[in-house]
Design a protein that fits this description.
The complex is a heterodimer of chains A (144) and B (224). By secondary structure, chain A is of the alpha/beta class. Chain A has a single domain, classed as Rossmann fold. In chain A, 39% of the residues lie in helices and 20% in strands. Chain A is built from four helices and six strands, in the order ββαβαβαβαβ. A four-stranded parallel β-sheet of chain A has the order 3-2-4-5, sandwiched between helices. A two-stranded antiparallel sheet of chain A has the order 1-6. In chain A, helix 1 links the parallel strand 2 and strand 3. The longest helix of chain A has 19 residues. Chain B is α/β, with parallel strands linked by helices and 224 residues long. Chain B has two domains: 117 residues, Rossmann fold; 73 residues, no CATH class. Helices cover 27% and strands 23% of the residues of chain B. In chain B, strands 3-2-4-5 form a four-stranded parallel β-sheet. A three-stranded antiparallel β-sheet of chain B has the order 1-6-7. Chain B starts with a strand and ends in a 35-residue tail after the last helix. The chains are: A alpha/beta (144), B alpha/beta (224).
């Protein structure tokens, strides 16, 4: 049986998700190795061009992690990120890649378990969706 | 500013047909301010087109350049080094003026990436509204700074009409009646008497009539 191992990029806000990832590590929580973390100074740094570039460079799924709504260190960065992610989802639909491959989640720095849960659930979602239509030669490895 | 918005991706994809390499040209003028054709939007369109083509198995090469303005020949000239033989199509992300200036200067197939909408301003971040009808002879001094040419659905000079209801226009309950706005403003300014004057028909020959319009200033020309 073959298992598809998706490449997933997680854009993490420094003030919440990046610390939550640290916490998840300290708590010895397991999450899939498919997730590649990119640190951002705030989820408000989210740029549609960068999200699209991730897909262009081979990501099967991308998600943005920002602070809980109302708790942004820079007040409204996470709300702006939300709108941009919505717009980028529309673009992905338009291109035919499926908007489900992109998502935004909110969490706080204290939510290590939530970080791991999101990583697990999103990886599972992308695994079900299969490789991005852009990645013709995806890594589908034999299950041992 | 001139306000424009992106054409749908599928339309632009059809316009470039089967091109292998496209030059996408942005403009740092009005369309950057209205967030439709600046450096960022050029990047997004280029990325969208590359993704679409990659998915179809027909890769596209893009070159992205954003000029200071596309409506001035001196800036259009700076594009020269990017217009190489292997460029199949140029996509202009400027208003209709930019598209035409590029097409006049370069012997390439030039297509618009935007739909040019109107002359307007920003009412809130992300919202742009029409304000000027470019009619060629400004009458704003007669109407308290509110333009009946573009803001009245019928461009009436002696309004309001019978379709003005509770301050809204009959064509759409969300559109304020320009003549109600004018009346309210004149009343606030104590100049209602100006509205008693009957306005003669406007001279539309100064508007969109008789081909392209031209403004010539002899004092600033450079030729001998």
């Amino acid at each position: 049986m073959t298992v598809f191992e998706p490449k997933i990029i997680a854009f993490c806000c420094y003030y919440c998700a990046y610390s939550a990832a640290d916490l998840a590590g300290s708590m010895r929580l397991e999450y899939p190795a498919n997730i590649k973390i990119v640190e951002m100074p705030c989820s408000g740094k989210t740029d549609i061009r960068v999200l699209l570039e991730a897909f262009e460079r081979g990501a099967d799924g991308v998600y943005v992690l920002g602070c809980m709504e109302g708790d942004c260190h820079f007040l409204k960065g996470n709300l702006r990120a939300k709108r941009r992610v919505q717009e980028a989802k529309k673009i992905l639909e338009e291109i035919g890649i499926s908007g489900k491959r992109l998502e935004m989640f909110n969490l706080s720095a204290a939510m290590g378990p939530r970080f791991a849960k999101i990583a697990n659930e999103f990886t599972e979602r992308i695994r079900k969706l299969g490789p991005s239509p852009l990645n013709k030669n995806s890594t589908i490895k034999e299950e041992e | 500013m001139i306000v424009a918005e992106s054409k749908p991706l599928t339309e632009v994809a059809n316009l470039i047909d089967n091109a292998k390499k496209v030059l996408i040209v942005g403009c740092s003028g009005c369309v950057t301010v209205c967030m439709s054709g600046g450096q960022k939007e050029v990047g997004i369109l280029a990325s969208k087109l590359r993704l679409l083509r990659k998915k179809e198995g027909n890769p596209l090469e893009t070159v992205e350049v954003t000029l200071t303005r596309q409506c001035d020949p001196e800036y259009v000239e700076t594009l020269k080094k990017y217009v190489t033989d292997d460029i199949d199509v140029i996509i202009s992300m400027a208003c209709g003026v930019g598209v035409q200036f590029l097409a006049e200067r370069y012997n390439k197939w030039v297509v618009p990436g935007l739909n040019t909408k109107f002359a307007g301003g920003t009412t809130e971040h992300g919202v742009w509204e029409e304000r000027c009808g470019l009619c060629g002879e400004c009458i704003l001094y007669k109407t308290g700074g509110i333009c009946p040419i573009i803001r009245c659905s019928k461009s009436l000079l002696n309004g309001p009409c019978g379709g003005s209801q509770e301050g809204k226009c009959e064509i759409n309950s969300e559109i304020p009646c320009a003549w109600q706005l004018i009346y309210d403003r004149m009343q606030a300014l104590g100049r209602l008497d100006l509205l008693m004057e009957i306005q003669p028909p406007k001279d539309w020959s100064k508007s969109r009539d008789g081909g392209l319009r031209k403004v010539v200033r002899e004092d600033v020309k450079l030729d001998e």
